[in-house]
Structure formats: structure tokens, C-alpha cells
Design brief:
This protein is 44% helix and 22% strand. It has 11 helices and 9 strands. The termini are far apart. The chain has a 7-stranded mixed beta sheet with strand order 1-2-3-4-5-7-9, with helices on both faces. The protein has a two-stranded parallel ribbon with strand order 6-8. The longest helix is centred in the first third of the chain and has 17 residues. Strand 1 and strand 2 form a beta hairpin. The chain is of the alpha/beta class. Helix 2 runs parallel beside helix 4. It is globular.
Length: 240
Amino acid sequence: MTPDKILASVFPEGHAVTRDGGLMLGHGNFGGRKIEVIGVADRTALGVDEAARLSQYVLEVIERGGDAPILVLIDSDSQRMSKRDELLGLNEFLAHLAKSLILADTLGHPTIGLLYGYTAAGAFIATALATRALLALPGAEPAVMDLPSMSRVTKLSLDVLQEKSKTTPVFAPGLANLTQTGAVARTLDPNGSLAEQLSGLLAGLSDTRDTRDRLGKERQGRPKAADIAERVYALARASV
């Protein structure tokens, strides 16, 4: 789906979301309440300028108060791999964006990601994975790291990684694998009303606890993470 069709389906009552280069910023009317929107479109790489602009908008939402949810639309490239961005501290800008979204969620602005295109690496982590609940549309292409890049980092051959990716979702990119690990909560039906599907999700967002590890265990995509997290938590509590 295109951004225009997504926004029309999420906000049938109208919206004031505008494009700013490869970014989307604004808000829409959603059943009598406001939902704030930030987004990355057209497979734009996320550099220091884009991360700073999105973070600024999120912090302005917090400053205005209220409890408006924040919808994060994502069709990005990875982080911008330029000398300028790296020298300016791109990792810090991406971390700032992720922390701004987490802070907003903690202060009463539920954050929901919606993948509708490609995203990878730092751009994926700083936007979609920093939201409380991540949704997707069919055809979305998320990747924490593509296999050739993973091969360079891990020093494992591409053949080995391709073989592992057939049985271990954490090694593999793609919507089905990210869903199995629990990173993606649900895939929406593009033929139905996105507003109705989003409304159902918002009504069930009463728990601020990150449940992705438990989803990964239920779906057998990350069977160990939830148990390890529970064990670490228990040990930490016992040491107090």
C-alpha cells in the first residue's frame, strides 16, 4: 500500500500528515481522538538530519501533554552510511530517536509501528523496534541485518548463514521470520479497514511491558529469550 492509501484507511475522518522530504509528520482524527504520526517513506536512509527531525517531533508531542498515541510508519533504507553522518555521531542520533519513542510510550503516548515497505539495521531498530507494538502489511521487508552483512560481521560463510536461516528465524530477514521471533505482533489485512484493526489493537494495549520475548517463545522463533529474561530478573530481585 502507498502512504496515501494507508493514511486514508487509518484516518477516514481526515488527517493533517504532510511530507517533509522522505519523512512524514502530522496527526489524524481517529474516532474522536488524535493520533500523532511520524514516518519514513520512499525507502529513505535514516541519517542524523532525519533522526533529529523525528526525535524533535516526538519530544514536541510529549511537551504538548495528553495521551495521543504515536503511529510510526516505516518504509526506509538502513541508516545512512556516509562519512558526514558517521562523523556527526549517527549512532547517538539513532539512539536518541529510539529513546524519545520509548520515553513517549512510558509517559502515556502508546507507540505503534507499522511496516509497509523495506527497513533494515539501525533505521529498523531506531523506529519500528522502538515502538511498543509493531504491525506490518503484507509485502513488508524487515531485516535486522542482511545475510551478506551478517557474514562479514560474524566471519561465518554466507552458505552457513543461509543454511541456518532455514531453521533459525533470528538468522533470517523477512516478515515471516521477524513475526516468528515476536518482533512483529500482527500482520494487518490491507483489504479491511486499517482504522478498525488499529482500534482493536489500541483497545488491548493496557500493558506497557514488552511482550516480544513471550511472543517469540509462543511462536517457537526465540524459545530461550523469555526464560533467560525471567531468570535475569529473578536474580536481580534476589540481590537487592
